[in-house]
Amino acid sequence: MKEDDHPGLFSFRSHRLRISFLLSIAFCVTVCMRVNMSLGVTCMVNATAFAPKSILLDNESLPTRSSASCHPINDEKTAQIDGYGGTLLWSPSMTSILLSAPFYGQLVTMTFAGYLADRYGPKLALMGSVVNCMIGTAMGPFLAVRSYWGFWCSRALLGVGQTFVFPSCNSMAAKWFPPEERATIGAIYTSGVQVAAGFTSFFVAALCTSPLGWPSIFYSFALIGFIWLLFWKFFVTDLPSENKWLSESEQLYIEKSTNSKKNSQHFKEQVFPWRKILLSRVTQAVYVSQFAFGYCAVLIQTYLPLYLKAELYLPIHKNGVFMITPFLSQIISKNLFALISDYLKRNGYFDPTSLGKVFQTFSCLGVAASLLGMIYLPSCENSWVVIPILTLYGSAFSASIPGSFASLLTIAPPYTGTVSSIAMAYLTVAGIGATQLVTILEFLEWPNKWTIVFATGAALNVFSLMAFLLFGEIKIQEWAELKEVDAETAELKGLVHS
């Protein structure tokens, strides 16, 4: 069998495509288990028990539903109609603390998750991650009605497992996919995040108003995670050479393009370049970009439903529809951008670094502009304005796939899991920063809290763009390149280890 006979990425015979879909579902399932709380909490909590004093007015003084004006949800009847008639007595600040719980869980494992995925294999690491998330999610309904802090711990446990998803998927991508396919593959498997963040809100909105009630939000996603585990167990291996479902021609093509066996051996034999991974200007440019996008991702995935409810007074079914917009835009845009990027690189029109910086520029400036637009343009009378703003946000956010994300997958193939784990640490710190900022502003009852929150995200994107333009690269770094070991050195190493 000749290597040239290998199936293309989008061929039905391509096992690489099956792997990418399973990676995408892994992202989707684990993110579903986290973001189900973003909208779900609005139907779990009593929406009127902790309404601000400024809007606790006599119902007769409020405009009716048929009025041209809009008004806050401040009575139980309206809350029930709009789908916000929960029973749990959690204040807004308590709710915000709950939403931050997964990020505190991630602090426990974020420093070594990627290292474990590189050393012991991403297959096992990702399986353990999903099992952990399933347990934390399935325990949710039981704990929520009995203990606020017990429920917080279950959400933190979910975060402990989620830390492994990002580096494990990236480590798998470095082993299974040639460099010229990685932008496309990155777009495919990270699309699971957008599918989860967008359609989960729609699904949650339906479950909230169904006879099953809010507990079904947790049980349904835990069940989906179990089904994924079965497919992952039987169809996936750490290395292409170990996979019985892979054709000989595809295996030869992957091995030649990725050096996956050599990279794995290189990881085990060489002195680990911690200093370069942590302090290299190129890796720092990637980490800063991940920090900015991590802040914005948490802002949109976690707090957009609360913003739409508190500022635009949207009922829960409209809230769910609006939430789909940025993520549907991301799914379409990121795959389109990735295909264009890989085509231009494959045909030599641009070098990867220059092309990546073009995409990254559009990404950062587009995200910053959309966040500023959220401050000044929407109101409860013209809530539809949010849709084009969120569409721009989703499209711009996706342009980072051929930019900083391609850099993350390329700069150090033997250590992709470790580099991704450190990037995940930056994402986690950004997520905690975003949740703490909202929590503090909620506690202080700051009148312009959303202006501060969105403006901070815009500023972070501009700063990260400057860092990537100055120091970002999309090529293997010298300290991560495979080095040939001569026979004499190999013999000496054998004597030392014997």
Low-confidence segments, ≥5 residues, pLDDT <50? 53-68, 75-84, 485-498
Q: What is the average of the pLDDT values?
A: 79
Q: What's the order of the H and E elements?
A: HHHHHHHHHHHHHHHHHHHHH
How many runs of DSSP E, i.e. beta strands? Answer: 0
Gyration radius, in Å: 24 Å
Q: State the end-to-end CA separation.
A: 38 Å
What structural category characterises the helix and strand content?
mainly alpha
Residues in β-strands, percent: under 5%
Quaternary structure annotation: single chain
Describe the structure.
There is one protein chain. The protein is mainly α and 498 residues long. 72% of the residues lie in helices and 0% in strands. The C terminus is likely disordered. The chain is built from 21 helices and no strands.
